[in-house]
Input
Amino acid sequence: MENLKIKFKLHALEYEVEGPQDVAREEFKNFNDNILAQLLSKVNVMLTSNIDEHKVLARESEGSRSLTLGNSDTFDHEAFPTLKDVKLRDLPKSEIDWLVVYAFYASNYGTKEFTREDLLRLYKDTDRRTDNRIRSLSSYIKAALKALYIKSTNDTNFIILQK
Output
């Protein structure tokens, strides 16, 4: 019987099972139903609508099939405009919209955490840093938190949410 290897990674959570296809699938189903579903229902996890980022990768190797779920190294960053293009087109209309755009780019397209310092760096990189914007940054962050655009993971880090 052909072996199946299943790997799942979501942020720091990693799960791997390997064995005969039916056993590996059953173990992963149990993990998904009993652990993952319970865990995800208790935390806010950013999910992107871009299927390429969370696609299933299957590959054949030496008589064993391998299935990897989660963030893929083949995520197409070119599907999004550069931050410079966003600035030149002046796409965001409010400062909260700008903060969410900066959060998206600071989080590597929603795939990692970001900090206030990351946002400040992007304000500077796009020549949009002003004393007034920096003074008001905390209120912009609070508004984005209230609107569920971002979520704090600790005292200094944030993640971008699906909304």
Notes: The helical segments are 21-42, 83-89, 95-106, 116-125, 131-146. The first helix runs from residue 21 to 42. The beta strands are 3-10, 13-20, 57-61, 64-70, 114-115, 150-152, 157-160. Residues 33 and 88 are 46 Å apart (CA to CA).
